[in-house]
Amino acid sequence: MSRTLQAVLVVALLAALGAAFAPASAQTRLFSDDAEIQITIEAPINTLVRAARRSTDPYPAVVTVVAGAAPERFDVQLAAGGISRRTGGICAFPPLRLNFDGDAVRGTIMQGQNKLKLVTRCRVGANYEQISVLEYTAYRLYNEVTPLSFRVRPARVTYRDSEGRREEDAQFNFLIEDVNDMARRNGRRVGLDVVSDTVRSSQLDAENSARFGLFEYMIGNLDWDMVSGHPGEQCCHNSKLIAATQETRTDVISVPYDFDYSGFVNAPYATPPEGINVQNVRQRYYRGYCRHNDQLPAVVAHFQSRRAAILGVIDNEARLTPDRRRAARQYIEGFFEILDDPERFQHMVVDRCRR
Predict the structure, then answer these.
(1) pLDDT at 10 over 80
(2) Where would I find the beta strands (DSSP E) of 72-148?
(3) In 274-341, alpha helices (H)
(4) Which of 102, 191, 262, 271 could cross-link to 221 by cystine, CB 3.0-4.6 Å?
(5) In 3-state terms, what secondary structure has residue 331?
């Protein structure tokens, strides 16, 4: 074999190895697909639901997942999750956390999963089913804007009460990618275990922060913060911080979650935060930082370039009723009309930034 041919083969091998270990390889199997999976959860559901407002103690459960030809069965610990939906008297059924045994999931669709958030239907009825689909869709919209976002997997979940005290219930739910997996997929780390108000807006990645703020404006969400949370609690409100290393405190990326209080979802229980002068959650109000305004022109151009893809997510969401799909599309089109009008954009976005 000639040296030239050997060199070519070495280059090809290195390229193949590089592709194999690129950040995309960190993608877990569960969140590599958008196809709806079937899940059955057998647990003391009635007991868990009744205790959820005051307790997040876990209960043993059996989870069966159908994502291919054969069902896969897992013994898990099931617990109530969330804060406002669970403790505020908002929801009759709490969000859930599923804790898997790492050894038991090897070779299955749940490989790599440990603690998973399951967003459930808040209350019984077709209206709340649509609210769940809309919040799932909001996550998908941000996926179209940036990979620095939480991936979600839709699921039709059947709940069976192992104690026989509650009727079997099937509902649309969705799973949220673990924050460590999301960070690793993007070549970053979680490690900013900081309390509220110890991160400054000057430490945030400027482009990402402008993109975050404009996305929240697009969906009409005011229930978030990039640097603050409830006093004494870990930062930040409905967002997670990731960075290049666990010690990095510059160019910090804030990644949003929880969109049920947005105007796009328009849940019956959603109200604007105190101190913000809007009539209801459907009224957009920009809360991005003024220090990141220089990045807005490029971010606006990016949103405009993704317009067809963003609207396509809504158009292709078959779980929405025609009326809901139409209303969701019109709401997002209203955002793009603002982007297309420089005077309106200056008045409604740039001039209303947070200092």
Answers:
(1) no
(2) 72-80, 96-99, 115-119
(3) 296-305, 307-315, 322-339
(4) 262
(5) helix
Number of domains in the chain: 2
Same domain for 249 and 312, yes or no, is: yes
Encoded tokens for 131: 């609210």
CA gap 21, 27 in Å, rounded: 11
The two tokens of residue 218 are: 């697009």
- Distance linking the first and last C-alpha atoms of the chain: 66
Q: Mark whether 219 and 170 lie in a shared domain.
A: no
In a domain, 10, yes or no: no
Contact yes or no for 121/128 (Cβ under 8 A): yes
Q: Specify the DSSP class assigned to residue 346.
A: H
338, 303 contact by CB (below 8 A): no
Q: What is the percent of the chain with per-residue pLDDT over 70, rounded to a whole number?
A: 90
Instruction: Region of 202 please: left (phi>0), alpha (psi -120 to 50) or beta.
Output: alpha
Q: How many CA atoms lie within 13 A of 126 on its CB side?
A: 5
Q: What pLDDT sits at residue 191?
A: 67
Contact between 55 and 174 (Cβ < 8 Å): no
- Look at the chain and count its residues: 355
Same-domain check for residues 191 and 272: yes
* Cis status of the peptide bond prior to 235, with omega within 30 of 0: no
